[in-house]
Structures are given as C-alpha cells and as structure tokens.
Design brief:
Blueprint lengths: L8 E6 L2 H12 L8 E3 L6 H18 L3 E6 L6 H10 L9 E4 L5 H8 L2 H14 L14 H15 L2
Parallel strand pairs: 1-2, 1-3, 3-4
Helix pairs in contact: 1-5
Length: about 160
C-alpha cells in the first residue's frame, strides 16, 4: 500500500530482509488511521541505501514536505564511521526529516536474545508509543538514542493514537 504523500507519513528504507522484518513488526503496532507508514523494498546493502537516499529520496522529500524517511541499516560494529558517512549524505534542509537507525552489529545478534525480528519490531513500536526504552536500551540498539529522541515526537501523534 502507498502512503498519502500530502499528509504526515513515514517511509522506511531497510538495508536488507532482516531489517525489513523488524520494520514489519513495528508497522503492525501502529494505528491504522490512514496509510501513514510504508516499508520500501530492501535496498540490498547499506551503501545502496545511501545511494537511494541521494538519488531518489532527496528529490522526492523536497516535493513532499510531510514525508519522513527512516533508513534502517546494520552498523557492523562501525557506528561512528557509518553514521558520520550517512549523515553526510543528508542535505541540511532535510536533516530534520531523515533518520538513520540500526543495530550496532547485525540484527541476528538481537534476534538471538529478543526473539523473532517481528517481535523485536513490535517491542520497538511499543517503546515509542509508551515513551519507554525497554528494547531501545539493548546494547545492540542504545546508540540510536539520539535519533529516536528526534524521531519519536514527530511521529507519535499520527502513528500511535
């Protein structure tokens, strides 16, 4: 399903299948007032996701000012380097609408401790809705705190009501 581009909405660009499954769990916990969140096709790698950000999503975000984009990538133990590189691809005028989230290493490490990818996604959504950090403070996810603090207030009113 497609989102209504003229109302507040979120597009999720997952790096790979595991991240797409986490996103599916998250989306399943949102309120279905209108199609306000959409998971895009898996990018096929974090560098490909960054290329799609620059080549496709930046121009479209400028056309649709209600759009929020969330890239979900694996940091593969290189958070500082990858977040710096990723944020360097975001134009200044879109910094407040593009977010980079992901596991410190790979989602498989998280699944071993917390259950299926969709269960993890549901837990992350519950944390956002209830303004808690039960799942977000896991060692594989705690580095996302700054991005979550920026993102949650923007989406809570139309994703969780």
């Amino acid at each position: 399903m497609s989102t209504n581009h003229y109302k507040p909405h979120v597009l999720i660009l997952p790096e790979d299948r595991a991240n797409a499954q986490v996103a599916t769990g998250f989306v399943g916990e949102t309120s279905p007032r209108y199609q306000a969140i959409q998971i895009l096709q898996e990018a096929g790698g974090w560098m490909v996701a960054l290329g799609l950000l620059e080549g496709t999503h930046v121009p479209n975000m400028r056309r649709f000012p209600e759009r929020i984009l969330v890239l979900v990538i694996d940091f593969d133990g290189q958070f500082a380097d990858r977040i710096k590189l990723a944020k360097g691809k975001i134009p200044p005028d879109l910094m407040d609408r593009v977010f980079i989230l992901g596991t410190q290493d790979e989602p498989e490490a998280l699944r071993a401790e917390l259950g299926s990818y969709e269960t993890i996604g549901r837990g992350l959504a519950q944390d956002c809705r209830e303004q808690t950090n039960h799942i977000w403070q896991h060692p594989q996810l705690q580095h996302n705190a700054g991005e979550v603090a920026r993102l949650a207030p923007l989406v809570r009113s139309f994703l969780f009501y």
